[in-house]
Amino acid sequence: MKQAKRVLVGTGAALAVYFALLAAASALIVRGSVAETSLAVCVLVSAFVAAFLGSRIAGSQDRLGDAALCAVSFLTAVVLLGFLINDGLDFSRAAQLAPAILCGAALASVMRFGKGKRTRGKRRFGK
User: Fold this and answer.
1) Which distant-in-sequence residues (6+ apart) come within 8 Å of 28 by Cβ?
2) Cα torsion through 90, 95, 96, 99, rounded to 10
3) CA angle at 103 for the pair 22 and 44, rounded to the nearest 5°
């Protein structure tokens, strides 16, 4: 039950970050700060960052399985939301997003955030 909760929280966070980054990218495109031709790059970077953060939240205690499950559920949620919005499955978009999402999850599972070994200072021998 705890694993499912961690994966759902990570997936929800990934979706929230993904949509926030897409909104920021669309605002930059509408302003003219970013060219329209770089829309695909913005989408892939948004998916990578969202999958990275969601997998770090889901696998915060060095659990590789939770990070992988979060990435797969995030990809599934994006594909299903695209199906609901566009009234059709677009597997070409999913094939483009899958490597970015899996790379984000792999990077999140490889990186370690947290407290390392702390030294207590200089050891004094003889006392």
Assistant:
1) 34, 42
2) 150
3) 25
Least confident of 50-59, 80-89, 113-122: 113-122
**pTM (2 decimals)?**
0.80
Q: Read off the amino acid at residue 115.
A: K
Neighbours of 72 (CB within 10 A): 16
Q: Please give the average per-residue pLDDT across 54-75, as a whole number.
A: 82
At residue 38 the predicted structure's pLDDT band, cuts being 50, 70 and 90, is confident
Place of tokens 């993904």: 18
Q: Cβ–Cβ contacts within 10 Å for residue 55, how many?
A: 32
